[in-house]
Amino acid sequence: MTLSPSKEGHSVSAQIVWAAVVLAICLAAVAIFSVSWAMGRIDDRALGEQRQTIEAALFEARARLAADQAATTVTPDEVAIETDELDRRLTTALGHDRAYILAPDGKVLRASVDGRYAGKIFTLADSFVLQPIIDRLRLRIARAAFDDPSLRSADAAGILALRTVGFADSGQGFVSIRPMDSLGDGSTSNPTDDHLLISIKLIDQTMLQDIGKQFGIANIRRVAHPNSAVWLPILNREGDILTYLAWTPSKPAQALLGEAAPALAVLLLMVGLAMAALLVWLRRTSLTMEASRAHATYFALHDPLTGLANRALFETRLKEAKDYEFLAETKVLLISVDIDRFKEINDSWGHAAGDQLLREVAKRLMIEMPEEATVARLGGDEFAIIHPGILSEGQARWICQRLIQSIRTPLTVGSDRVDVTLSLGAALEKGNEVTPEEILRRADVALYAAKLAGRDGFALYNPEMDREKRERRTLEVELRNALLTGDGLHLVYQPIYASQNGRIAGAEALIRWMHPTRGLLSPDHFIALAEECDIIDTLGEWVLREACRFAVSSDLPRIAVNVSPIQFQNARLAERILAILAETGLTPDRLEVEITEGVLLQNSSQTQETLGTLRQAGVSVALDDFGTGYASISYLRSYAVDKLKIDKSYSQLVDADPVVGHIVRLIVETARALGMSVTAEGVENRGQRRKLTSMGCTYLQGYLFARPLVPDDMRDALSRDSRDGTDQKFG
Ligand code: C2E
Ligand code: CA
Ligand code: CA
User: Fold this and answer.
1) How confident is the model at residue 469, as a pLDDT?
2) Does the chain have fewer CB atoms within 10 Å around its N or its C terminus?
3) For residues 174 and 244, what is the distance between their CA atoms, to the nearest angstrom?
């Protein structure tokens, strides 16, 4: 009983949006990661380059120390003079920090510190560090001299010591020791007699600042411990770490990012906004798409007028019904529902009202049914209900009864109240034993039986009904045969009397069928069947021809013939009637056609035209069974009929029920005001006759005066009438 589109759609759209959000976050994460990774790489590389630069600068400083030494010449005289002149030349002039000149015997001839003469000793910081290097150098020189007796100068042989060292005062620096033969007395030409020049350049703040300035590296300094990634160890020859250098790294990528930050932020904001807009759009589009898809699915499976399941969904549900799970073994109840006389209501109140009525009925059926039942509209006023899980026939009957009751409360269509009744056909079957098609067929058979039984009720299928239906089929064939051969069909005539003088004013032709096996059948047994099987046209023409022939052969003032509403659907009806009149030679003014309200309620121009043609030709028109249908008295104004036949249900209550008396009086007065004559039919006793006559009914018909008569009896009645005048019953 789904009445609203499913909610599934929303979750799908939500999923899409969530997927998009997650995707966007992932993309952003990847972008941020790769940018920061690239930045890190760039900055790392820059750091590596800075480290190499510092390394190279230190290496160059050390090399320059040695080169400066090579270019330095000192004379023995200069060494002897204790002024600062030589000291400046050996140190500050070259940018060195300390220098020593050592005699071949190892004695310090001169110490210069920061451009000043400093006596003839090593400073405390230097002596420990320098002595081993000096010793080793001397050893190398001696070895070289030993290896090559022709060697004159160690310096020329390139023997020197160049070291990076840590001093006892915890400073670090470069030491270069070079043999100098220029200071010798010239007498000896043995390199082991060479003096040594020791130059020291400290790796101090001045030096580091210079490097920093030269290469654009900020805040190079010595640190005792490396505390970040930014450091460079200073190693001695043995590979021991003397100290670390640290500096403020330049991070080009970060700097670039910092500069580009505002622009980047704007860009990101715009991208974010675009993404958000895209997401909103995506969500909207997917929602509309899903909504329209849900809509399409809904309307593919539901009746747009009532919102009930349509035939497609109904068939699916019927197939599914057999799998209904319940604690006990259950059956499927299928109910075929038909609104009684819907066509009449639809015709008289208009299609909009008809639609409203269908919706209202649909609503009531829905209310009565539980969740597991399916209420469907299969077309027109045809509804069906599938109710699985039924335990007993009693339960099924109770459900049908409730449905019928639910409609009994009058419905409101527009501002009017309409009394509606239902006919229900129910089939209660085991879903796994009977096919869905068969269940549906059985419900329809039951519905047919319910309608035959007089509508406003229900019938539960039993196999007997199939037999009855088969019998009707047989009857149909037999009726067709009878019409073809004329065997068994005949007319009887019920006289109609003028109320004023009691004389026969006409007769109504009524059909009878002498069935070969069933005996005499009244029209109630086969007119509906003829209407159903499209033989009413042939039957009607047969009756008309027969009646006209009888009338022509008698003195009957007027012959009334019943014409079924179905016959009015034939556009050539008037033409056919007039043709039969011409064929039989009956003058049109001796023919009266009796129509029912149903004909007028069809309200079609074709009906109007048919009636118009007949009346113009002189045929009179009587409205039969007046008061039983839906036509109101006011309705009569728009229809030109010559006569009203008040239904026998009124005639028979007219003297017993004062309300009916009032109604009949009203009908008669209205009819007379409109220039119509009135026949009261079904008059069975004198009381009724008196009352109806006094109320002004023009004609009377009923068992009180005569039953329908076979032609010979009718002729007798006619001759009695012309001989004796007023019927004795009028006395
Ligand atoms: P109807 O047109 O209303 O015909 C009057 C019916 O009331 C007839 O039943 C008649 O026998 C019955 N009747 C007459 N006087 C009395 C009375 O005092 N008391 C009672 N209780 N009944 C009375 P019948 O002949 O069985 O016809 C039944 C219906 O069959 C007719 O109702 C008419 O609608 C239809 N019918 C009969 N012949 C034809 C026909 O040739 N063509 C068509 N289309 N319908 C016909
Ligand atoms: Ca009639
Ligand atoms: Ca009637």
Assistant:
1) 87
2) C
3) 15
Pocket flag, ligand 1, residue 596 (CB < 6 Å): no
Q: Does residue 725 carry a pLDDT above 90? A: no
In eight-state DSSP terms, residue 523 is G
Alpha helices in 322-412 (DSSP H): 342-349, 351-368, 393-408
Neighbours of ion ligand 3 (CB under 5 A): 624-625
Nearest ligand 1 atom to the CA of 596 is 34
Ligand nearest to the CA of 523: 1
181 φ/ψ sector (left φ>0, alpha ψ -120 to 50, else beta): alpha
Q: What's the 681 CA to ligand 3 centre distance in angstroms?
A: 7
Tell me, using a 6 A CB cutoff, whether residue 520 lines ligand 1.
no
Q: Would you say the CB of residue 512 lies under 6 angstroms from ligand 1? A: no
Q: Whose Cα sits closest to atom 8 in ligand 1?
A: 510
Please give the full DSSP string across 54-73, using - where no structure is assigned.
Answer: HHHHHHHHHHHHHHHHHT--
Taking CA atoms only, the protein residue closest to ligand 1 atom 38 is 510
Cα of 652 vs centre of ligand 3, distance in Å, is 13
- Residue nearest atom 13 of ligand 1, based on CA coordinates: 682
Instruction: Give the pLDDT of residue 604.
Output: 74
CA of 573 to the centre of ligand 3 (A): 21
Our CA angle for 723, 724, 730, nearest 5°, is 145
Q: Pick from 703, 696, 661, 663: which is nearest to 681 by CA?
A: 703
CA distances from 500 to 626, 685, 695 (A): 22, 17, 12
Q: How far, in Å, is the centroid of ligand 3 from the Cα of 544? A: 17
Question: Which amino acid, 692?
Answer: L
Sorted by sequence, the CB contacts under 8 Å of residue 697 that are 6+ apart come out as: 499, 646, 668, 678, 679, 680
Encoding tokens for residue 616? 């113009």
Phi, psi (5° rounding) for residue 595?
-115, 165
Measured CA to CA, the distance from residue 172 to residue 167 in angstroms comes to 6
Q: For 272-289, what is the mean pLDDT?
A: 87
Ligand 1 atom nearest 594 alpha carbon: 2
pLDDT in tens, 630-689: 666 766 777 779 999 999 999 999 999 999 999 999 999 999 999 999 999 999 999 999
* pTM for the predicted model, two decimal places: 0.56
Eight-state DSSP code of residue 465: H
Out of 527, 689, 713, give the residue to mutate to test ligand 1, the one with the largest number of ligand atoms within 8 Å of its CB.
527
Instruction: Give CA torsion, residues 149, 152, 156, 161, to 10 deg.
Output: 70
Most confident of 33-42, 77-86, 343-352, 674-683: 674-683
623's tokens: 């409205």
Measured N-to-C along each axis, helices 351-368 and 342-349 cross at an angle, to the nearest 10 degrees, of 140
How many A from CA of 564 to the centre of ligand 1?
Answer: 12
Cα 8 to the chain's mean position, in Å? 7
The amino acid at 494? Q
Give the torsion sign (CA, 130, 131, 137, 140).
negative
Task: Give the containing element (helix H, strand E) for 318.
Answer: helix 311-321
Per-residue pLDDT tens digits for 129-154: 899 999 999 899 888 888 888 887 77
Report the pLDDT averaged over residues 173-187.
77
Among candidate residues 475, 458, 450, the one with its CA nearest the CA of residue 525: 475
Q: What pairing do the DSSP bridges indicate for beta strands 699-700 and 677-680?
A: parallel
Average pLDDT over residues 218-232: 86
